[in-house]
Design goal:
The protein is α+β, with helices and mostly antiparallel strands. It is built from five helices and five strands; from the N terminus they run αβαββαββαα. 24% of the residues lie in helices and 13% in strands. The strands form two sheets. It has a three-stranded antiparallel beta sheet. Strands 1-4 form a two-stranded antiparallel ribbon. The structure holds iron/sulfur cluster (2 copies).
Length: 198
């Protein structure tokens, strides 16, 4: 008799715990359909920014590469041609690559950059099948010309530094809320897989 009562009591105790949590707000979100808000200072995938006139902010100085503790950044600068200026400075980044597998998302590259060219966005959906896909070259990092912000230095009135692109308000072209789906890697992966299968 007593063991039976003990078992019932244990069951009741167990179900009481279940019932206690059954009607509480669920902490689990149905990702990717439901997306959780990032912390405002979240460090995700990098992007290379432009000025409002479309010029690249990066001047190929390599300071980000030197500051990077993971040796993840490769920059090779080149002289701007007078008839084809890519950046306001003398030089621009002819080659710019970040190995996102080496990156520890510390943000030191962003801190070191004198022109606010390299920033970390809220994007984090970078999963992939090949190591090579994590090498983000300049064509993947550079924002489109229409996403440029801030006045380029050689156009500043009286040489007085102007807005550098709303770094504090929204430093990257990706808003915190949009950060999740912004890389579109899913569609790219589907295409790559089709290519492999074919
Ligand atoms: S976030 Fe840190 S580890 Fe990643 S590239 Fe920048 S400096 Fe290097
Ligand atoms: S991203 Fe900034 S720090 Fe890095 S090479 Fe370009 S200008 Fe220099």
């Amino acid at each position: 008799m007593y063991p039976f009562v003990g078992a019932i009591a244990a069951l009741a105790k167990g179900f009481a715990t279940t019932l206690q949590f059954a009607f509480q707000k669920k902490p689990t979100v149905q990702y990717p359909n439901v997306k959780k808000q990032h912390a405002p200072r979240f460090h995700g995938l990098h992007e290379l920014r432009r000025y409002a006139d479309g010029k690249e902010r990066c001047i190929g100085c390599e300071l980000c590469s030197i500051a990077c503790p993971a040796n993840a950044i490769t920059v090779i600068g080149a002289e701007n041609a007078p008839d084809d200026r890519r950046s306001p400075g003398e030089r621009y980044a002819a080659r710019y690559e970040i190995d996102e597998l080496r990156c520890i998302f510390c943000g030191l590259c962003e801190e070191a950059c004198p022109t606010d060219a390299i920033v970390l966005t809220p994007r984090f959906e970078m999963a992939d099948y090949r190591r090579g896909s994590f090498i983000y070259s300049k064509d993947r990092l550079l924002v489109p010309p229409e996403a440029g912000r801030g006045t380029a230095p050689d156009e500043r009135p009286n040489g007085i530094p102007s807005d550098l692109g709303g770094v504090i308000e929204q430093k990257s072209t990706v808003s915190i809320a949009d950060g999740y789906g912004a890389t579109n890697r899913g569609e790219i992966l589907k295409t790559e897989r089709k290519g492999l299968a074919g």
